[in-house]
User: Fold these one by one.
Assistant:
Number 1:
Amino acid sequence: MAEIHEFESPRNLYEKLVRDSQRLEKEVNGDNFFTFVSTAVVLQPWIKNSPLSSAETMNRIMRKIVHDSNYKLCKDIAEAKSLFKLEVSDDNKATIHVGKDKIDVFEFHSHIMNLFDNFFKQK
C-alpha cells in the first residue's frame, strides 16, 4: 500500500514540525537540528498565507512569532545569514554556537515548539 504525505495546509506542516521535534529529542545532531529549524521557518509563511490567519488573535500570534529572537535565529540559520556549530557533550548536553553565543538546544527547541503550539491550540 502506498504511503501518502500530504502537505496542503499549515496543519500538515505543523505535524511535520512535531515529527522533526521528536527526531531532534531522540537524536541530537546537526542534521536533525537543521531540519527542525528549516521546517519552523517554512511553517510561518504557510500560516500567514492561509485563509485562517485573518483573525486578530491569529495575527497577534503571528506577530509574536516573527518578532521572536529565537525564530529570527531559525530564519538566519535557514537562510545562511548565521552559521552554527552544534556540540553534544558526553553528558548529552547539546549547545549550538552561533558567533560568540552559546544556546542550549533543548531550551531553544522547546521555545520554538511553544510558539507554534500557541497558534495551533487557538484554532
Number 2:
Amino acid sequence: MAKIRHIFRLYALYVKMDLAWLFRDRTFAILAILTDLISNLSSVMGVFLLAWRFDGIGGMGRFEVLFMLGYATIINGIYISFGAFNTANISRRIGRGQFEHMFIQPVSLPVQLVTGGFFPITGGSNIISGAVVMIVVTTNIGIALPGVWWWVLSLVVNIFISFAILMGVSYLASSLAFYAPVQAEEISSYVIDSFSHISTFPLSGMSAGLQASLITLIPVGLLAWFPTLALFGNAPFNLPALYPLLFAIVLWIIATYFFKKGLNFYVKKGINRYHPMGHRR
C-alpha cells in the first residue's frame, strides 16, 4: 500500500507540473489546445470520410468504423499521457545511455517507468476526443448493446489491454537496444508510430491470411479493429473476446524475459555512448 500511495503522489506531482507547463502563458495554452484538436481530427478524418461516403468499409458499418477510430484515438491519448519523456519509447533511453541516470534515483526502476512522463493534461485531449466520438456512436448505432454497465466495463478493460499490447511490443523491440544502442535507439518509436497509424484502418476488407497475421505475428489489429468487432459481438475468426487478454499475457511474458536478459547484459557491459547529459556523445 505504501508503494501505491507513493506512485499516486508522483502522479499528482506530474499533474501539477503539466498544468504549470501548459498554462504558463495564455496564448500558448490556447494555441496548444487548438492545434491538438486539429491534429486529432485530421489523423482520423480520411478513413472516416471514406467510411461515411461508402456506408462502411470491408463489411464494417460507418458507425463501427467511427467507433474504431475513437478507440484508436483513446489508445494514442493514453500513450501520450503515460509515455512522455521516453518511458514508452524506452529504446531511446537505453540507446542514449540514460538508464544509468535511472539507476541512481531514489526510486525503483519499475516505479520510474510507471510514473515518469505522466502528462494527462497535455496528452489527455486525445482521450477526450476519442470518448466523445464513442458517445456519439453508441447513441446512433443500430445495435442492441448487452447490459450497458457491463459493456462499458468491457470497453475500459479492452482499452487498457490494447495499450498493454502496444507497450509490450515496444519493450520487446527495445530489448535490441541493449545490444545495439546506435542502430536500435529509435526502434520503439518506429514500432509505436507504425502501429498507431495502421490501427486506424479497418482490416475487415483484407484477406483472411493477412487479417490473421495482423492479430498474431504483427498484432496491430488488436489495438482497435479486433476489440471494436468483439465489443459489438462479431469477433473475427469466431475467436473469444478474451483473445487480446491472452495475447497480452503471453506477449508480456516474452517481453519481460528478453528485456531482463538485455538489461543484465547492459549492467555487465555498460554502454559506450554514455555522457553526463545522457545524450549522444
Number 3:
Amino acid sequence: MSISIKTDHYAILVREITAFYSQARHALVESYWQIGRRIVEQEAQSDGQAGYGAGLLEQLSEDLSTQLGTGCSVRNLRNMRRFYLDNRNRQPAADLSWSQHVELMPITNKAEKLRLERQIVSEKLSRRQIRQEVSELKKDEQALQQDKIPITLPEPNRQRGLQCYGLIAPEITSRSRGAVVVDCGFNIWREMPRKEAALHGDPSYTYPAKVESVIDGDTLWVVVDCGGKILTRQKLRLHRIDTPEQGTPQGDKATRFVKRIMKKSPDIVICTHHYDKYARYLADVFYLPGSTNPKRIYTQGHYLNQQLVNKGLARLWKP
C-alpha cells in the first residue's frame, strides 16, 4: 500500500539531505584538488631523479590503498594530479561533481571547457551526454588541427562568363515560334528569342548576387541576379567547407569574420554547384572590397571559401 509522506517536515528533510550531499561533493572535489597539488609539489622536490614521477604515483597508490581502501588507484591519482594542473590558476567549478570534472579532462581549450561547464549546470547533463559533447568537441579540434596543413580548394575557371545559361531541349517543353528556352539556374526557365541563343548553351552557373544576411560561418542568404530582370532569393551553403557550430568559440569567430567581410562587401559573385540535403545550393563566393562590378569581383576578388580554410576557421567537407 502506497502512503504519501510529502509533508512540510519531509520537504525540509529532502532539502537538508540535498545540502549535506552537495557539501560532501564540493568537499570531495576540493580534496582531490589538494591531493593533486601535493603530488605536483612533491614531484618538484625530486631534483630530477630518474623515474621519480611514475614511481611516486605507484608507491602512493599502494600505500594509500592499504590505509584507505579503494579509490586510490594510479589512474585516480593521475587524474587528481591533472585536475590540479588544469585548474592551477583558477578555482574548479564548484557546481560539478568529481566524475563530471573527470569527463571534461580531455578538453584542452579553456574557453570550450568553461562553456561546457556552464552547459552541464544549466541543462543538468548526464555523464553520457557530457561524453557525447566532449567527443564532438574533440572531433572538431582534431579536424581543425588537421586543416592547418596548407590546403588549396579547386576554383572555377574565372575567365568564364557570368550568367551563361544552358538551353532546354525542344522536346522537354513547348516554346513560342522563333524562341528558345534557357535554364537560368535555381529551377528558373526563361523563354528568349532564338537569335540570342548564340550567347548561351554552355552554362557557367555563375551569377552576381547581393548578401542579405549571414546565418553563420558557412551559410548566407543572398539575392541572386539571374539576368533578364529575374531575381531569386536563396540560402547558400559554402562549397567544400564546414565551420564549427555557432555557440562555440570557433564557430562564433568564423561567423564574425564572414559578417565583417560581407558588411563591407555585400556585392559578391557566386559559382553554384549541386545542392545539399537541405536543398541549399553549394557555392563558391567571391568578393572585392569597394567594387560593385561583377566581372572585376569574379576575376580579381578574394575567394571566401579558401580564406576561411587558410585562417583555420573551416575544415574540408563533403556534402
Number 4:
Amino acid sequence: MFGFDIFCRVIDYFGDAGVCWRLAQSLADPSYGHSVRLWVDNLHTLARIEPKINPRKKHQVHNHVDIKFWPTKGDNTIHFSWPNPYQVAIETFSCGLPNAFAVQMKGAHIHINLDHLSAEKWVEYAHGLSLFRHSFKEPAAYYFAPGFSQNTGGLLREKNLLKNIQQWHRQSKSQQWAQLATPLKLHRQHLKELVKEKTRIFFLFQYEHAPIQKLISYLHAQQTLTKQNMVFIFAADQVNYIHAKNFLKQNPNHSIHLVQLPYVSQKIFDKILWSCDFNFVRGEDSFLRALWAQKPFIWQPYPQAQQQHLLKLKAWLDTVKLPAAVNTFHWQWNQSYKQTIDFNALNPVISNAWKKRIKQLVHRLQYQPTLTCQIAQFAKMKTAKAL
C-alpha cells in the first residue's frame, strides 16, 4: 500500500478544493489501505464543502484523510517543519510542490502532476508522459490527465456511487426532498412545491456572468401559458438569486418559486443534483457530478483567456453527442453576450432524448477504471521501477 501527499492551492471558487477533497477521500478509503495527507492553503473554502472541518485548526483528520494547512505566505513558509514525504506526491492543477518538501524526495519517490479534466484529444497523447527533471536524484515526475476515454487517467468516482444514485432515483419526489429538507433548511412552502409531481425543478450553480435572468424570463413566459409550477434552487454563492428575485417582483402572477441554499457538504450537493430535473453547473467538480446524476445539464466551463474554455466545451459536446438543440443551447448559454438564446432544448421531447444520451454515456463510463484506481496502479508500477 502507498502513502500519498496531495497538494491543493485554492485559486478561485470551490472546484480546486472540491476535486482534491473527493480524491483524498477516495484514495483513503479503508478498502484500499492507503495513507493520505491533504495539504490545503485555504481551509475556509474546504470547510464550506465539508462542514465537519474546522477552518482554524491546522491539523485534523476526517474520513481517514489527514488534513493539513499548507503555509504558502510569509514566515510560515520558512519556519514550517515538513514531515517525511510519502512515496507519492500529487501536485494538483500545476500548483507546484513546496521546495522544502520537494528536496526531501528521492529517486524512489514519484511526483504526479494531476491536470484538470478535459475531453480534448491531446489529453490522450499527454497522459502518463514523463516530465523533465534535472538529475536522477530527483523523483520521477509524470503528467496525469483525467478523461473520458480508455487512453486517459479516467474519472473521479467513488465506490458504489452509481448504485447509490440508482437507489435514490427509485424513491418518490416526496421521499427525496423529505431527506433533504433539514440539511437544506427548506421552508415548509418550498417543500410543498418541490414534492408536487408536476413541478419542474432547476438547480443553478453558475459563474456571475451566466444569463440566468434570460432563462427565468423565458420560463416565466412559458409558465404563464402552461400554468406549470417551477422551482429554481440557487447554490449558496449565487448573486444571480437577487436578480431573479427582483425580476419576479416586477413580473407577478406566476407560480415560480426561488430557493437560496446554505453551504452544504458534497454528499448533500450530490443529492440535490440527483433530485432536480435540470442542472446548470460550472467548473469541473460539479460538471462531473452532474454527469453521474444522469439528468439533463448545462455546463459552464471556467472562463479562460483567448476563449480556451470554449475548446473544452466543444470537445465535451463532441464526446457526448447530444441532440443538436442541446448543443446550440450550450454554445449560446456560454456566449450569451453575443446573441439571444434558443431554449427549445428544454421542451419535454428533447430533454428526454438529452437525458437518455447522458445515461448511455454513464453506462459506458462505468466500465472505465476510475481516476483513483488508475493513480494507485500507476504509482505501484512506477515506484517498483524506481526501486
